[in-house]
Amino acid sequence: MTRRRRRTAVAVAAWFLTTGSPLVGQTVGTLDVGASIVEYDGFLVSGAAVLAPALYFDSPSFTIGGQGSWTLFESGNTIFQGTAAAAWLSPLRDWWRAEVSGSAGVSKYAEAAGVGHALARMRLHFFAERAGGWVSGTVGGSFGETASLPVELAVGAWSVHDRLAFVGTLTGTWLGDRRHVDLLGAARWTAGRVELEGRMVIRPWAESGDAVGEAEPGVHGDVTASVAISDRIGVALSGGSYPADPVRKVLAAKYVSLGLRLNVFGRESAPVPTLTGALVRAAREREDAAGGVRFEILPSAYPRIVRVYVAGVQAVELMGDFTDWQPVPLEPVRAGVWEIRLPLAPGVHRVNVRIDGGPWLVPAGTRREESEFGGGVGVVVVP
Questions:
Q1: What is the pLDDT of residues 148-172, one digit of tens each?
Q2: CB atoms within 10 A of CB 265
Q3: For the chain, which has fewer Cβ within 10 Å, the N-terminal or C-terminal residue?
Q4: Domains, the chain
């Protein structure tokens, strides 16, 4: 289990996710089971067992979901935690998008009083073909022994490539007489069924008021290695440290965790660090559109004639479930038209196209779908 999963509790919003939303998207349910060794600030090192269900719905412009966790420590004490969040991404014009999101969370440790938060955020996004940035503002409430009204202002930048994704943010937080600044850098690398993610947080300045130790300056980082054993089962090993978050009532900690993830239903796409699936899709849709690639299967021929329309290029390849995901070259038949004959059986097929040895693209003429390993794939129906 990663620290993010340990901070969450019994899944919420399930009724919304399973009542037949008219949105085009997917519903995913997962269950994480794991063990951790953790040292929270002010506490002794302890072993812990973790059970964490999650449920979310993801569509091209809207995401909603909840996660939960039940943690049992060596002492016999337990933590029940839960979070729910939703985000809506709306096009403005050209390179710009607006996002409105909200989140809420609760936490209960042993016999202590429960704590929680409720936050609303607005972000203005700028998209280039493989990169982008945003500015955001977050307000809401943080609840515990006393209630506070937090404010967070942030700027961020990101870049998505074939196997790599990078994110950097600068965030200023105000919570009563507590204030701090965070610099976050995150990177994710994927290759087949293997995924590596690293995060570093630098807190160069903090004022904690009367809450000594809640938000101290320092440097933190963690690394997670994940392997998908099958479409339904994955394992993850993670470790490192993370800083205190007084807004969301999270203590600073050092940890090592080993976990097993069960994909109960739906197919999970690995998100880019701190980016929703909707944002990654919007960026990749711009990248795909920039390629000017259109895909077509001629209906009358067998073997089927697969045709790709793209002008001014030297080489066109495709791969799909009907090629065992091995690249095959197409032949030019006239200016801007490339073809290959393949024995495609009737049914639903998935395909990607590559131009001049560049990144694999989802061509126009297919329906984009997120693959189980992240990234996109084109879906086409052969009659």
A1: 899 999 999 988 776 778 889 999 9
A2: 13
A3: C
A4: 3-282 (2.40.160.40), 292-382 (2.60.40.10)
